[in-house]
Amino acid sequence: MNNLHHFYFSKKTILYARLGKCTMPFKNLKMNILKRYIPFIALAATVYVFYAFVYGGALKYAEQYQLFQTTWDYFASLTQRPGGIAMYIGRFCTQFFFRPATGALFIALLTTGIFACIVSLSESNKYKYQAGAAAALLSACTLLNQFALANSLVCICIGCFILLIINKIKHTKAIAFVLPTVIAATYWIAGGVPASMIVIYLICNNIATKTHNKRLWTGIAVATLLIIVAPAIARQVFGVQLNTVRAFVGADYFRYVGYVSKLPVLICVFIGLLPLTMLWQPKTQKSKRQKKSISVRYITSWILVICTFVFIFQRKVSFDFNYKCEIEFYARTQKWDKIVAIAEKHHPTEYSALIYTNLGLAKTNQLGDRMFEFPQHGVFGLVPDFKLNMDYSMALSEVYYQLGFMNFAERFAFEAPKSNPDYQESARAVKRLADINIIKENYPLAKKYLLLLENTVYYSKWAKKSLKYIEEGRTNENAEWAMLRNLQVNDEFFYTEAERDMMLGKIFLANESNKLAFDYMMAYYLLDKKPEKFMNYVSLGQHFYVDRMPRAFTEAALYFMQSKSESMLKNLKADENVIYKRLLDFGDIYNVSKDDPRLKERFGDTYWYYLITN
Amino acid sequence: MKIYKYITILLSAVCAACSETVTVSDTVGELPPVVPDYSQATVPVNIAPLNIMAADNVDKIDVTVCSSDGQEAFHSQTANSTDFDIDKWHELLAANTGKSITYNVSAKADGKWTQYKPIEIFVSPDSIDYGLAYRLIAPGYEGYAAMGIYERNFSNFDQKAIVENNLLQNNCVNCHSFHQWKTDKMSLHIRGSHGCTMILKDNNIELFNTKTDTTKGNCVYPSWHPDGSHIAYSINNTRQVFHVLNPKRIEVIDFWSDVVVLDTKTNTLASSPHLMSADHFETFPYFSYDGKWLYFCCAKAVDMTVDVDSALYDLCRIAYDNATGTFGDKVDTLVNASAMQKSVSFPRPSPDGRFVAYTLSDYGQFSIWHPESDVWLLDLESGESRSLTAANSDNVDSYHSWSSTGRWMVISSRRENGLFTQLYLTHIDAEGDAAKAFRLPLRSPEEYDAMFYSFNVPEFIVEPSKLNPFALEGKVKNKNLNNFIFK
Question: Which of A78, A139, A167, A359 has its CA 20 to 30 A from that of B56?
Fold first, then answer.
């Protein structure tokens, strides 16, 4: 084994420093320490800033689809499968993604841990910083994908850490002896990929250092055999009911659990092969030309690291996904103004973001005025069809919850985690289910959900408070629950997706003060291009709009009236007249050319433009 | 994992050492604030420890379990759940067979200890089978996520996966059925991309496409004939619809249904005009344990798109001769539920042939979503039916099975919270009288709170499962399906 030097500075230096006897001028020592720390601090800071302040939406998104429990049973249930401990740690970290400023700390810590382990492992390797930076930066990239799980980062970190410990063992006999046990433990803790990484590293290290120790090679051979048979042992002996590939990989790296992400596997292979770079180490040269050659190699290796990172980063990162996640988070936390602000900036086209945008507009009383300022794509951007998809289910649940349609808010909140590809429960869904069952006064079920949330970090306080409300019979004191309880329908019928307008009507008729339901019903008819139905029912909501009708509603009404009879357009109010003049202008351009770009420029935010383009 | 058990025992021992002296401030004649309610329950002599947990409004409980002669067997003081030693527990029950054991409970709340009325539990000499096989599935609507068929040993808390859908391309697994409580013959449906029906027989797994040119759909609810060669199935065209009003959530309706019998030796399906009638829906077939009768539910065919609650099922039976594979020429209506504007589902004849247990609800056949559903018992000798009042609750009490001795019945019930189904065991005496049902004990009652699954289709088994899940995995992956032929 290669001798390892201490990570930051030698024992002797520390001892002298503690005794106040510097082996070098103190200023130099400080500079030296600082120099050693700078790469790690820089990496940690970069990763932290990116995930905390630039890509935080993705972290919040990941958090909502798990329910980490601080209970013994939760720990025990995970650790009964290979890679389970890494998954537990991964999920532990993920729960803090609720607050990206905290969650990013864990990502920075893990990536810096990988960097530090590799630098320490490759002490005598002249490319150690390049290798460490490459592995750490690429590891940080594993979380850029919306379906990535933090488990992969944890697995790589655990693998590196165990490798570092093995590397500390000086005697090859001892390594040969403990290696199979260590590999078995690594497999159970973090899965077969980090275990294979360790074995590959040891093989490469032996090749690079030309080690012919038979005991060590025997230990490696046994460990290799162990990795090969580990999935079969896990399945047949321990009864782990995972297919062979998943039984080998252990921890799930990706939310679609049948799929094994390539990036974490490639990073592990890269780390395993690192000792081979020793074979191409530049030797110390004295001539100017030779020194220049070393510098070129150094610079080239850094360029290679940066290019690889940029290539992977560009392929994985999605800022569109990030803002969509921000919108979802603000819907969770009911910050409707912020949703509208993001939508104004990005004009979302993706359905689930559009659903929240419309809900945000409706909750801020802007749907009737501004809905066509955003790219609408039919009724599915308002009240979508049900799909076994966690994002859609959750969005649909949110819409029905706000409308007061509790049985279906419950249904879709329940379905959301069931369509979560890695089958985890969702903290967001469980919290919503608790809300719904409190509103429905089904307290035993609400309590079940609240007791689960009590065992979490971020939802515990809310759960305790809610339990107190129930125990003291004060649930009506919560304004949201009391309001939504009043909005519930009281007429039994079966849910039919084909007649969503009818359902919206029933919700509104159950409580005619439900302005959200009225706005949704009207918006539904507009998006469905049924101005006749819109005109039939718009008068039902006159009490909401005594002073003036919202702009999009007025546009639709004027369009309908103009197409039926000019006489209906008498006695328009001043603001209606302005809109009517716009309609005439629109008609003038449209009648000349349907493809005139001025239509989009001047009327892109109108109902009329929506009618001709969708 | 045993290691967790040892750690728990160690922690319990540490906690026991820290238990405080109970100074009772008050004594009340009520039952103690503990979960679950085992008071006055009749339990089998070989059941696992019945641990109890402090209710939410209590800080701590002090529990002493005494034998019928008043001797203390266990003492536990805990803020959560008791954890009685399994071996010692079995010794206690064995020594008190046919008698009662008593839980003396004091509870601490607001700094004061209150002593409550003792909980009395009767230990029946009728032992219960090895265990239960059930499906664990989220009580959801359309999505099901992770699920599987599991077995649970009654005498301890061991639960083992028979097969999980992880192994089967995440398809849905359902309707597990065993031959005469033994596990060497099993039928199981797999639904989804790799849909098929598995039949395990003589250590051999075979997969079938159960739809034939003559039958209108796939085979559904199975029941093995005692000869081990025939299986009755229904064929249903099923759809789900969703209620808007609380407390109902889901309605599962059949647009039509028939009953067929499979001969597993020849893979041929047979039926009778009485079981495939165009103007009736026939479903939930179940063979009597002498094999001479096939029980089923039957309703007049109605247009389910118009009136969901108009399908009312009666309990019927038809004679069956397994030697010739022929059916009787008339159908006996045993419970004319439709005349009472009620509906029957899940008929289950008792092993001694005297009773038929069934679920009675207001309408339809999928009573597991009907809060009003209860388990009833038809006495075939007297022709009278009665509700198993002591075992039923005011919420869903539906899918039920008999133990091999006919002395125990398991009932699926949503009584705890209206959504998550839990299993309740009840003793049925020779006259068909049920004792108070008690919830299937888990090591800690808290486990139920943390669970996201319903216990579904509970079936008693007398031995551990013999299905090799990995062999099934391979077969399902290869999709080598045999076909049934309709005779």
Answer: A78
Mean pLDDT computed over A256-270 = 93
Could you give the CA distance from residue B461 to residue B131 in angstroms, rounded to a whole number?
A: 5
Instruction: Profile chain B (487 residues) by mean pLDDT over runs of 10 residues.
Output: 54 62 92 96 98 93 96 95 97 97 96 96 97 94 90 97 94 95 97 95 93 91 97 95 87 95 95 95 97 97 88 98 94 97 98 97 95 97 96 96 98 96 97 97 94 96 97 93 91
* Alpha carbon distance B127, B46 (integer Å): 6
pLDDT tens, residue by residue, A498-538: 888 999 999 999 999 999 999 999 999 999 999 999 999 99
The H-or-E segment that residue B401 falls in is: strand B397-402
A72 with B4: Cβ contact below 8 A: yes
At B413, is the secondary structure helix, strand, or coil?
Answer: strand
Q: How many CB atoms lie within 10 A of CB B8?
A: 15
> Closest residue of A to B5, CA-based?
A76
CA-wise closest residue to B210 among B284, B135, B260, B265: B260
Does residue B242 lie in a domain region? yes
Give the DSSP H/E element, type plus range, for residue A392.
helix A390-403
ipTM of the predicted assembly exceeds 0.90:
yes
Residue from A479, A477, A505, A501 nearest A491 by CA: A505
Taking CB atoms and an 8 Å cut-off, how many pairs form between chains A and B? 112
Structural domain span for residue B119: 2-124
Q: Do B141 and A414 touch (CB under 8 A)?
A: yes
- Examine the domain organization and report whether A127 and A228 are in the same domain: yes
pTM of the model: 0.92
Mark whether A77 and A222 lie in a shared domain. Answer: yes
In this prediction, residue B484 carries a pLDDT of 92
Kindly list the residues from chain A whose CB atom is less than 8 angstroms away from the CB atom of residue B446.
73
Chain B residues with CB-CB distance to A74 below 8 A = 450
Answer with the one of B94, B124, B154 that is the final residue of a domain.
Answer: B124
pLDDT for B104-142, tens place per residue? Answer: 999 999 999 999 999 999 999 999 999 999 999 999 788
DSSP assignment of B200-262 equals: EETTEEEEEE---SSSSS-B-S-EE-TTSSEEEEEEEEEEEEEBSSSS--EEEEEEEEEEEEE
How many structural domains is chain A composed of?
3
Q: What pLDDT is recorded for position A385?
A: 86
Q: Which runs of E-coded beta strand occur in A473-576?
A: none
Domain annotation covers residue B483: no
Are residue B415 and residue B461 in the same domain, yes or no?
yes
What are the tokens at B439? Answer: 């919830």
Question: SS3 of B198, please?
Answer: strand
Q: Any residues with CB less than 8 A from the CB of B161 and at least 6 apart, and which?
A: A239, A241, B148, B149, B150, B469
Cβ pair A489:B245 closer than 8 A: yes
Q: Which CATH number is B296's domain given?
A: 2.120.10.30
Residue B451: closest CA among A23, A431, A67: A67
B54 and B165 housed in the same domain: no
Q: Domain boundary at B124, B143, B176, which?
A: B124
| Selected residue with higher pLDDT from A196 and A297 | A196
- Alpha-carbon gap, residue A122 to B96, rounded angstroms: 69
Residues A351 and A294: their CA atoms lie apart, in Å, by 54
State whether residue A510 sits within 8 Å of chain B by CB: no
pLDDT tens track for B19-50: 788 999 899 999 999 999 999 999 999 999 99
Residues of A in contact with B470 (CB under 8 A): 235-236
Rg (alpha carbons) of chain B, rounded to whole number = 24
Q: What is the nearest CA distance from A442 to chain B, expressed in angstroms? A: 8
